[in-house]
Amino acid sequence: MTTTTNRIAFQGEPGAYSHEACRKARPGMEALPCRTFEDVIEAVRSHQADLAMLPVENSTYGRVADIHHLLPESGLHILDEAFVRVRIALMAPPGTRLQDVRHVRAHLVLIPQARGFLTRHGITAAASADSAGAAADLARDRTPGMGVMASELAAEIYGLEVLARDIEDHHHNTTRFLIMGRQPDHSRRSDRMLTTFVFRVRNLPAALYKAMGGFATNGVNMTKLESYMVDGVFTATQFYADVEGHPEDPALQRALEELRYFTSSLDMLGVYPADPLREAQRQTA
Fold it and tell me: Which of 96, 175, 196, 263 is catalytic?
């Protein structure tokens, strides 16, 4: 892959968890914040950035809305996956004590994850559109008694003081990101490869059942299979799948050949190495 800008685009404000994912997975690249997921994709397509960092699912809250609709039409290709543990920090302007914090702001999905900590300390919480954005606002306004729950990266960027770390109730909460680029790379870059594709089944009785049978009979592990409507039509269903293996592996090759017989379309989104943390997630599941 030829790097032209050395930028990786993400959705959110600087200090968002997607920004943290960029730093961890591509520490040598400049992170480019974008307003929406569509803007992230367009940044790569228009050569403002070389790579996109897109969250696809969370171990607590499931898949990220709209992402599976965007990926097949993006024109981009999956090059890597990245697992990032969601560590929640409570932060406030320098000089604030933990006992001084009576209210916090955070993204809606973070608040339930730290309910135990908030209850123990008598802190009320209000939802914000973006945790990193809330941190930026607090750094500017310095509202007395107010704190923010966000990543430690947000505290670093906006000059806030971390009053408590790892305040989430469950310490297994992890977000899976996909790193995408303009050009595919199907080379075998690891002993554990993954293949992601989308397909539509033909209008045949039990077509999906028969299409999936090839993976079972060939011993191919399918780690994800999700369906969603296309263009708002109930009869137009597209399936998104992740499987273990490389398309050149004999077993996966046979399974894909059988799948093609029962599908009206089959598009590869990426062939990429499994993140080492995937196995750790499997063991704790």
Answer: 175
**Over the stretch 42-79, which tens digit does the pLDDT of each residue have?**
999 999 999 999 999 988 777 887 787 899 899 999 99
Q: Is 197 one of the catalytic residues?
A: no
Q: How many whole angstroms separate alpha carbon 275 and alpha carbon 169? A: 25
Residue 177 a catalytic site member = yes
The pTM score is: 0.90
Type of residue at 216: A
Give the separation between CA 37 and CA 39, rounded to whole angstroms. 5
Judge whether 161 and 93 are in contact, CB under 8 Å.
yes
Mean pLDDT of 95-117: 95
In which residue are the tokens 């599941």 written?
285
Place of tokens 């028969």: 210
Give 197-207 pLDDT, tens digit per residue: 999 988 778 88
Spatial separation of the C-alpha atoms in residues 210 and 207, rounded to whole Å: 5
